[in-house]
Fold:
Amino acid sequence: MNVALRRLVTAVIGLSALTACAQTTAQTGTAAPENAAPWATDFEVDPAQMASVGRNPYFILEPGYFVVLRDDAGNQLTITVLDETKVVAGVETRVIEERELAKGKLVEVSRNYFAIHKVSRDAFYFGEHVSMYKDGKVVGREGSWLAGVDGAKAGLIMPGDPKVGFRHYQELATGIAMDRAEILSTEESVETPAGKLDHCLKIEETNALKANELEYKYYAPGVGLVREEQMLLVEHGTRRPKGAAKK
Structure:
């Protein structure tokens, strides 16, 4: 996900990011690489146990829910749970739209497909359809993939009960999308324009296809994503889906 932002992060990471990573590890008590747990790649995604609506403490899959993140440079990410579903690899998934602005200009729109386990509340990622924009026109589809196509499998986007040190693949599309995440902390505090958020999850994301790609994300209980690099939460809530009946 977030191809445009990942390119920007990769461009500036270098040695300083590696140093920062080492400092973060020391501060959070995360295990050193040689002691780290193996990356989880095999997930139970029985269609009978999957739901296209639900939530866990850090991931909300309910139509109309949205979050908006923004930084001082005019970069913005808007994530919206749509009132749409799509069957992927035999599973009814929910569509989440992500719209990215770079310095105020649209650079990416992706339609992402998720489902949540009815018992464990683990949230799984089944693929995405990516549209890259330049000057208002689609110029590429880089990063698009679907579970069940060309050997791709669903990844785990957010555990229902996250544990520090757990490492898992979020995407499992060989040669296309291989993002992975390590849980560094469950007790972070994040100051945002929308307020101070406590007991946040801190995740380090890397890419098995690109050695220098690294970014940090923070998720707040009952909210979801609240910080991605320098973008901070400015708004979140639920908008009634179009066509929904008033109560």
